[in-house]
Structures are given as C-alpha cells and as structure tokens.
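Input record (Table S2, row 308):
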Amino acid sequence: MIPFPTGNTVKITLVGAGAIGSLWAGALARQGHAIHLWRRQTDTAFTLQWQGLDAPDTDTFTFCCNQPERLTSSDVILITVKAFQVLESIKSIAPWLRTATPVIVMHNGMGTENEVLQLLPDNPVLYATTSQAALRVDRQSVRHTGVGPTFLGAVNRAGEQWQSLAGVLNTALAPCQWHEDIHAPQWQKLAVNCAINPLTAILQCRNGELAAPDFTAELTGICREVAAVMTAAGYPTRSETLLQRTLTVIQATAANYSSMQQDVANQRPTEIDAITGFLIEQAHHFQLATPANFALWQQIKHLEQNYG
Ligand code: KPL
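Output record (ketopantoate complex):
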C-alpha cells in the first residue's frame, strides 16, 4: 500500500467545482492540502466561500486553476463532475496526467467505469460514492448541508495500492471508508437515487415530502424493481431493505432538495441516464422488466427536452 502519512500536504487536482466538488475542495483545503482546480472556465483563480455544517462562519479559499504543471505534479486527481461529463473531463486532463497518478472518480449513478478504464489504461483508477450533501448557494459559495458516508475503492489492479487515500478523504469529511468492492456501495446509493431523485425532480419538492403515505406505493414499486436487478447483478437484496434505506435517507435529508430536483429547477442536464438509465440497461441485460423506473426515466427525459 502506498502511504499518505497523516499531516502531510497532499497535492490534489480537483476536476469540476460544482456543489460536491466545492464541498470537497474546501474540506481538503481546511486540512492543509494543496488544492488546484481544473475547470471549464478559463480563469486562473477561483475564490470559494465554504460553510461547514451548522457553522455560522464561512472560510474563504482562493484556488489556483487550470495550470498544466500543477496537474502534472499532483499526487492525486479527484474528478467530481457529473457522470455525463466524466469522459470529456478525463480527455481534457490526459495530455498532462502522469500514468503513476491515481485518479478518483466520484459521481452519482454508475456506468462510466469501462470507458474510464479504456481512457486511463495505466493509471491507478478508483471510484468513490458519497452521501455527503452540499448546496451551491451561489457561483462562489457552497454550504455543507448533510453528513453521509463516502466509500472509496479500486476498479483496477493499480488502484488497489491506494487505500491510504480513504484516510485523506476521511480526515477532510468523515466518514470515508475503503471498500474492497466499490460496486456494492455504488449499487446501494443508486437504489436510493432511483427512488428519490426522479420523483423529487418531477414534483419539484424537497426530499422530505416523499415521506407522505401517498408515495409509499410508488417507492415500493421502484424498490422492488431495483432489488430484482441488484440481485441479478450479484448484489442480493430485498425490496423491503431498499425501501427502509430510502425512507431513512428521506428523513435524514428531509429539508434538502435532491441534486436532480436542483438540475431540473435550473434547467441543467440531469444524471438520469447514469442513475435510472443504468438500472434499465442492467435490467435489459438480465431480461427483467422495470416499468416503474422506465416511466420515471421517460418523464425526466421529457422535462429535459422541454427546457426553455
Ligand atoms: O444523493 C442524493 C442526491 O440528491 O443526489 C440524495 C441521496 C437523494 C440526497 O439528496
């Protein structure tokens, strides 16, 4: 295992500074790590107001951006763009990326892994899934709005040596744990996202509103289909377990808007293809029917196609 001794400054290039990226950028900078941002905007600096959970004060950080030499000298790359931007963002960093540098990909949903591994055949590649919640208050401010676990795991041989990165992430935003099979927590998160994200985006409501008894039948139907697909994919579970976990997340994040609700509210492309779309694709592979999830996928696609 390659160690990152506690207290050492780690040079991190963070690709994408949306809500989750900004949350991690600030949290890692607070630990003294050297954060460099790689963004689509061409500015060479970005100032971020970072507000911790229940903290009245904000921290202000100015990050250096888009410096190829900082990218090359990074100890680790953390990609926090949306699933549909992952490949394009990897292509944008590839010319300056050393093959020894570990790359962590963190996004909602699944399905990017094979293409990422093709683009990065020699790098250690890891995936992370997080249930931390953040809200972009405005373009330059982010607030940490909820604590949840983060899991990190390797998706290729070279990535397996980098368990110490879970410690780096854990000191910045606990809890973060290494997982020997990252697909297991990815599926668990995907199940919750299949249940909460499309419904809250269609209804334009907070997560907590799904706790109303009116939604029990629909949530049960979604979870039943997800449980069948997960079981066929080698991650056996019961629909009752998924429903219970979904209701727990709904309670814990009752006041929050889901990421898909925020995307639709702001007329941005959503992660529906990486969440419900991935589920439907897997269902097709295992010849399983997922009518409830398919109906939600269609409704979100329709919303996206009709943005003004
Ligand atoms: O991950 C989420 C998201 O908004 O994408 C949930 C779990 C639904 C919390 O809001």
